[in-house]
Design goal:
By secondary structure, the protein is of the alpha/beta class. The chain has three helices and 20 strands. It has one domain: Hexapeptide repeat proteins (UDP N-Acetylglucosamine Acyltransferase, domain 1, 3 Solenoid), CATH 2.160.10.10.
């Protein structure tokens, strides 16, 4: 799965991991804003790694949680969907707007393989100091370079270099960051 190879989505071991994530997500999403320590504890148990001074506002939806790494001082706004069948690596000082989706799962084009429930995944990586506007979708296998800004509603289908502004569907570089 993490190696990008095909796997069966209804594997019992994966189902148990997904159930674990669902229970921990529910706990995180139910935490009170007046209990930052409890929220942090739930997030730390759910995700693979959480840096210092990270703020994630619920609700958060994940597949497994344990394949997500968030660097220090990162902010994730409401409604994030991080489908971590593959690794999701979020750098330091990243800003993620509301309703952003980071998607690692892929599906075969062959209809017979899809009917048989075969899937695969490709990692998503956000460099340090990336800013994703509200509603951005980052597709499987994409890396976004440091200091890059992606405009609200954009769909990122290919890697973006460092130090640029990108917008649209598919996202295209429109200028450099000064």
């Amino acid at each position: 799965m993490l190696a990008g190879e095909l796997y069966l989505a209804d594997d019992p071991e994966l189902a148990a991991d997904a159930l674990r994530a669902a229970v921990l997500s529910e706990r995180f999403n139910a935490t009170s804003p007046t209990d930052p320590a409890g929220r942090r504890a739930a997030l730390t148990e759910l995700l693979g790694s959480v840096g210092e001074d990270v703020e994630v506002r619920p609700p958060l939806r994940v597949d497994y949680g344990r394949h997500i790494t968030i660097g220090p001082r990162t902010f994730v706004n409401f409604g994030a969907v991080f489908l971590d069948v593959g690794a999701i690596v979020i750098g330091a000082d990243v800003q993620i707007g509301p309703n952003v989706q980071l998607l690692t799962p892929t599906h075969p084009i062959d209809p017979e393989q899809r009917r048989a429930k075969w899937e695969a995944a490709q990692p998503v990586t956000l460099g340090d100091n990336v800013w994703l506007g509200g509603g951005v979708i980052v597709c499987p296998g994409v890396t976004i370079g440091e200091n890059t800004v992606v405009g609200a509603g954009s769909v990122v289908t290919r890697d973006l270099p460092a130090d640029v502004v990108a917008v649209g569907n598919p996202a295209r570089v429109i200028r450099s960051v000064p």
